[in-house]
UniProtKB/TrEMBL annotation:
SUPFAM superfamilies: YdhG-like. It comes from the Bacteria. The lineage of its organism: Bacteria, Pseudomonadati, Bacteroidota, Flavobacteriia, Flavobacteriales. Residues 17-113 form the YdhG-like domain. Gene3D superfamilies: 3.90.1150.200. It comes from Leptobacterium flavescens. InterPro entries: YdeI_bac (IPR016786), YdhG-like (IPR014922). This is YdhG-like domain-containing protein.
Length: 198
């Protein structure tokens, strides 16, 4: 996905929804929010805190509320686009300009601004500490170079390996999984690297 430096670049770089994005942008600029670009997308802030964002995709355009889970959502229009991953953020999607209910949208934005000013926010849960399963620890105790190879992996890869062993229900499965991952760890390969985009 292309990264844009300015909101004008973002809008002109869209194949679809240009007029709709200009329309929403004008609404946002009539609030006290400040316009910026983060992660290549237009973001509107107050006191340097993200309040809303502007987005455009093939089948819809919309508004991201960074703390949308705190909104009353009287119209029941907000969705969590990444269920299980996103705790606070919510989207309001539109597939035409006619679908934009301006008074309701401005009411949602006003509520989002008020929440941010009041310091109301949902903070992401802190990750639990990395726990090494017994089988993996025993392998490290027997092979120091394996432990050293594991130590240089990033935290995500370490967690994936630990969970892979820990989630096996049977003892025999834990042993088989351990046998599978030892060479991968030694080579510095993550368990799910083949699924990751390079």
């Amino acid at each position: 996905m292309k990264s844009f430096k300015t909101v004008d670049d973002f809008i002109s770089g869209q194949e679809k929804w240009k007029d709709e994005l200009v329309y929403l942008r004008e609404l946002f600029l009539n609030t006290e929010l400040e316009e910026t670009v983060k992660w290549g997308f237009p973001v509107y802030t107050i006191n340097n805190k993200n309040v809303i964002g502007l987005g455009s995709f093939k089948s819809y355009f919309g508004v991201w509320f960074f703390q949308g889970a705190l909104l009353q959502d009287k119209k029941k229009v907000l969705i969590n686009a990444q269920e299980g991953k996103t705790v606070a953020m919510r989207q309001w999607r539109f597939d035409s300009r006619e679908e934009v209910d301006e008074p309701s949208l401005m009411s949602y934005i006003a509520e989002a601004i008020a929440n941010q000013k009041a310091g109301r926010e949902i903070k992401p849960e802190k990750k639990k500490p990395l726990l090494i399963p017994d089988h993996l620890q025993q392998a490290f105790d027997k092979d120091l170079s394996l432990k050293q190879s594991f130590e240089v992996l990033n935290l995500t890869k370490k967690r994936e390996y630990a969970e892979y062993i820990e989630t096996a229900k049977q003892e025999s499965t834990k042993v088989k999984r351990l046998e599978k991952i030892i060479p991968m760890i030694s080579e510095g390969i993550g368990l799910n690297d083949k699924y990751r985009k390079s």
